Amino acid sequence: MECTLSKNLSICTCTYEPCSRKGRCCECLHYHRKNGQLPACYFSKEAERTYDRSIENFIRDYSSRK
């Protein structure tokens, strides 16, 4: 599968509009990893809208889906 910006944008779940990394998955992963976070695509729609990308929030969100 070819990784292109147009394909990535079609599946990107980030709702933070001024994000310069939207659709640029490698940049997004590196940015959030550097900051001790996870990118939007790891979260449910509800949790993603909080913009809390912390690992603790991911664990809460993931646990509530079971």
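The above is record 1. Record 2 follows with the same two-line structure.
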Amino acid sequence: MLNLDGYDLVMLSMVNKSIRSQTKDNLLWRKICFREFPNDIIRMNYEGKDISLNNNNWFNLWKEIDKKNSTIIFAEQPQFSLMIPPCWTKNESDGLHPKIIKTTMPYFDVHAIFGTLMPGIYQMVWEIKIGSLKNGQNFKFITKVSDKDWKKTINYAYKPRPYEIENLSNKGWLKFKVPTKIFVQENSNVKTELRRYTNLEENEISLWIKSMELYSVQLVRCC
């Protein structure tokens, strides 16, 4: 079991009760945490946190670190974003989305970088809230997977069709899962971008998007 990564071990635990009991071993999950997230564990040690075997539920710690490394909440983690443009302002929304960024601009892009990802196939999930949309407004989701030196890059892009954009409008907070599957190899960097553009003219300002709020972007592993 130690040869499996954390995600595969979770999938294995769903086979039956006997295997599930074997996958609950705390020492096993401690070894997986140190193997998959060494920098995070070392950082915990420098922060004076107890990382001994008996004082932690290492499976819960694995879930916590895995979620942290695969999710960027923009208003809380601006250091993980290359740039949050001036057109975005920080706001508060509700209990589930306490810190967000918001814009009323007709065109923009916002992007973020992920590191410390286990190899696998992922999908990008954007948690967004979009106001009224009219014809002539478009979104594009772009993801680049590069080696650790940013020299070799694989590009993925997805442009929603008009009916998909209409289904995003005035629906409140929603999680839009980009259909494109992303293959991540070991030691890869992932840069993702949400771009919005319009072919409306300035004198059609009343047709522009009323507002867009952005909470987070997450890489969800498929297999």
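The mean pLDDT is 83.
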